[in-house]
Amino acid sequence: MGERLTIGEAAAASGASAKMIRHYESIGLIEAPVRGENNYRFYDPRLIHELGFIHRARDLGFSIADIRVLLSLWRDRQRPSGEVKAVALAHLAALDAKVAGLQAMSAQLRHLVVCCHGDNRPDCPILDDLAAQGNRATAF
Predict the structure, then answer these.
(1) Which residues contact 43 (CB under 8 A, 6 or more apart)?
(2) How do the pLDDT tens digits run along the chain, 140 residues long?
């Protein structure tokens, strides 16, 4: 991968779509690539590697703001790893909170599904619960 790649080739090599590569460039997450006389973008191996880094970080659910910090830390070979770990731990805590919230929703919905007979009768505890929740929200 010593030569420069077009945006399509860069997308294939990094796993990031061409649309996302343009977006990362527009928000300054990556530097603008060299442009040829035909105005095509050409990506060097370093940019391809950074795009792969960003793609992997997005796969792990990191926000663009966190990725900006992680890229900065990754580029700084003198940085303490504790700074990187702090970003990762904060993200992990946020993920764990989301998981707990999803598990609570799942348990609540599972309970409602068990309570619903699912037959030809019109009464339905699922709809009753949704309606009761709506009434509580408008009671304020």
Answers:
(1) 4, 5, 6, 7, 9, 10, 21, 33, 51
(2) 458 999 999 999 999 999 999 999 999 999 999 998 898 999 999 999 999 999 999 999 999 999 999 999 999 999 999 999 999 999 999 999 999 999 999 999 999 999 999 899 899 999 999 999 766 655 54
Cβ(84)–Cβ(73) under 8 Å? yes
R_g (Cα) of the chain, nearest Å: 24
- Going by C-alpha positions, the residue among 45, 43, 94 that lies closest to residue 65 is 94
Cα 79 → chain centroid: 25
DSSP string, 69-96: HHHHHHH-TTS-HHHHHHHHHHHHHHHH
Q: 21 near 51, Cβ under 8 Å?
A: yes
Q: HSE-up of 130 (CA within 13 Å, CB side)?
A: 8
The model carries a pTM of: 0.80
